[in-house]
Write a structure and sequence with these properties.
The protein has about 200 residues and is mostly helical. The protein contains seven helices and no strands. Helix 2 runs antiparallel to helix 3, helix 2 runs antiparallel to helix 4 and helix 4 packs antiparallel against helix 5.
Length: about 200
């Protein structure tokens, strides 16, 4: 920021832009993951992080640097999507365990990330940004290769459960109506036998 002649207030604006964009994008990405799928949102968010990291290293003025930080904030607004993905693919007993794994991985990244950034920054600020972009690109490729969509499988499971419930309801309804039908037929036979006895008595 100093290289671009930024003032302390504009540096504060740059720092705020990341958190502000993340706050705005978090519920929007959550809704988008419900419509388009968790995998879709996660992969494109990693693509945005990659673009932002390379863009931060290549910018030549302060407004572009702020724009790159905004893109990074939007693409980083995925904690809710990650939690939703975990909820989709785990049972109620496993969910808390894998949620804790996710939080632990996030904490490890917060600890190791700045340390690696400091090491890479010895080769220059742009080098650190490009290294971050390469790591993000590798994460994106890994997500494309190994992450399966969970949203549609959850919808299919719900549809199957509804179909099974409907079939069970029809079976129960059929069983419940069977005694009534049998009772009606029995009553009719009883009436026929009664009428037959009455006719015999009349003939006698």
């Amino acid at each position: 920021a100093k290289d671009f002649g930024a003032t302390p207030s504009t540096v504060g604006l740059m720092a705020t832009s990341y958190s502000l964009c993340q706050m705005i994008a978090t519920p929007l990405l959550g809704r988008l993951s419900d419509r388009c799928g968790r995998r879709f949102v996660l992969v494109w968010s990693l693509a945005g992080t990659t673009l932002s990291s390379f863009g931060t290293g290549a910018v030549w003025n302060f407004p572009l640097l702020v724009l790159a930080r905004c893109v990074n904030g939007i693409s980083g607004a995925t904690p809710g999507v990650v939690s939703a993905y975990i909820a989709d693919v785990t049972t109620s007993e496993e969910r808390s365990i894998y949620m804790s794994y996710s939080q632990a991985a996030n904490s490890i990244g917060i600890i190791i990330g700045p340390a690696l950034g400091g090491v890479f920054a010895r080769q220059g600020f742009s080098f650190a940004c490009y290294a971050s972009g390469i790591l993000s690109a590798l994460n994106m490729l890994a997500a494309m290769a190994f992450i399966q969509e969970s949203r549609w499988s959850q919808v299919d499971d719900a549809a199957d459960a509804a179909a099974v419930g409907s079939a069970s309801a029809r079976e129960v309804s059929g069983v419940s109506s069977a005694p009534l039908t049998a009772g009606t037929k029995t009553d009719g036979n009883t009436e026929d036998r009664t009428e037959g006895q009455g006719s015999s008595e009349a003939r006698v």
